[in-house]
Specification:
Elements (H helix, E strand, L loop, with lengths): L6 H17 L2 H5 L9 H9 L19 H13 L6 H15 L3 H12 L4 E3 L13 E4 L6 E11 L6 E8 L2 E8 L4 E5 L8 E14 L4 H37 L1 E2 L2 E2 L4 H30 L3 H27 L10 H11 L6 H11 L3
Parallel strand pairs: 1-4
Antiparallel strand pairs: 2-3, 3-7, 4-5, 5-7, 6-7, 8-9
Helix pairs in contact: 1-3, 1-4, 4-7, 5-6, 5-7, 7-8, 7-9, 7-10, 8-9, 9-10, 9-11
Length: 365
């Protein structure tokens, strides 16, 4: 594999960064902090002008037919900004529809809307720690009648903003996947340390649902978890990079004892450690994304990447606050917003300890 981006991937990164610089400024991003929802104008530009939501969707449905490396490139730039978008859930929903079968009527109905950004979607994944536990949502598929779902998913990314939810549920025949429109669910917004990522508890009480055909629903669930881990790690790399940039800028300009604090060994070494953490995290994410595209063994790589990047991002965000000092904790500075995101993201879709346990099991320890 190549750890360096191709010319097209580098151009995608530059275009994404430029679009976010123009339309996701600090001032505009802060208007949505902690208020739920997302910037609809930014979403329109991200999906319309850049085509970001359709990157990994086949051209037959209006997508670009690219891969997970490209998705990781976009998510890193989103992670470096304070923009709140439903990108993670939407691209993960497209992943599930594609894995379940691009030729199905459900995929044909929704993939074009996902590619064009006119449909916002998410996946109601059960908690990673409960991977072996019975599903909390149960489906009924009567012969000749519409399917229905009953149960609760405790935490769903953009659960209150999504037009479409893809839900794994237990049935009499075993695990199955279902597509549920937002009007059929009760989504309750949840308080979150991360002011940029809306979360919701989703309750289903006989919700009408459309079965999503899949030859192996369990394999689709495992794949969804693995891809979610890699894509969330890509976003975390962007968060860590933004923290590093803030710390270095402050170390260059903050003067103590007649010289910039970056000249002091303790600060200089801390910044060097942060740089190593960011670059190592990016390399792991690109390798895992490449495995997702090449059909390699993704499971262990996804969890190993998620565990390392979560810890590295948290340490980088915490070190940034130490270098900045008191100013980093003020509402007017962005450092604490990134720290909130870094802290909350470590627990989303399973904490690092769960992923390390999974790696140990997968490699036979």
């Amino acid at each position: 594999m190549r750890f360096a981006l191709s010319d097209d991937q580098a151009a995608l990164r530059e275009a994404t960064a430029a679009l976010l610089a123009r339309h996701a400024s600090r001032e505009s991003a802060r208007t949505t902090l902690g208020r739920g929802g997302y910037d609809t104008e930014l979403w329109r530009r991200l999906t319309g002008e850049l085509g970001a939501a359709g990157l990994a969707i086949p051209p037959a449905f209006g997508g670009a037919g690219a891969g997970h490396v490209e998705l990781a490139v976009v998510l890193e730039e989103l992670g470096a900004s304070l923009a709140s978008t439903p990108y993670l859930g939407t691209v993960l929903a497209a992943e599930v529809l594609r894995a379940a079968g691009e030729g199905s009527a459900v995929a044909a109905r929704w993939l074009a809307g996902l590619a064009g950004g006119t449909t916002v979607a998410t996946v109601a994944l059960p908690d990673h720690a409960a991977a072996g536990a019975p599903p909390t949502v149960h489906g009924s598929v009567p012969a000749g009648g519409p399917a229905s779902l009953t149960g609760r998913v405790a935490v769903v990314v953009n659960g209150a903003e999504a037009d479409l939810l893809l839900v794994p549920a237990g049935t009499a025949e075993g695990l199955a996947w279902f597509a549920v429109e937002s009007a059929e669910v009760r989504a309750t917004p949840l308080p979150s340390l991360d002011l940029t990522r809306p979360l919701a508890r989703v309750d289903l009480d006989g919700a009408a649902a459309s079965p999503v055909p899949a030859a192996d629903p369990e394999a689709v669930l495992r794949r969804a978890r693995d891809v979610a881990a890699v894509l969330l790690a890509a976003e975390q790399v962007g968060t860590a990079r933004a923290c590093l940039d803030m710390a270095v800028a402050h170390a260059r300009t903050r003067v103590q004892f007649g010289q910039p604090i970056g000249a002091f060994q303790a600060v200089k070494h801390r910044c060097a450690d942060m740089y190593v953490a960011v670059e190592s995290s990016r390399a792991l994410v690109r390798h895992a994304a490449w495995l997702a595209d090449s059909g390699g063994d993704l499971a262990a790589a996804a969890s190993a990447t998620r565990a390392y990047v979560s810890d590295a991002t948290y340490r980088t965000a915490a070190a940034t606050l130490q270098i900045l000092g008191g100013i980093g904790y003020t509402w007017d500075h962005d450092a604490h917003v990134h720290f909130r995101r870094a802290t909350a993201a470590t627990q989303l879709l399973g904490p690092p300890a769960d992923h390390r346990d999974r790696v140990a099991t997968l490699i036979g320890l």
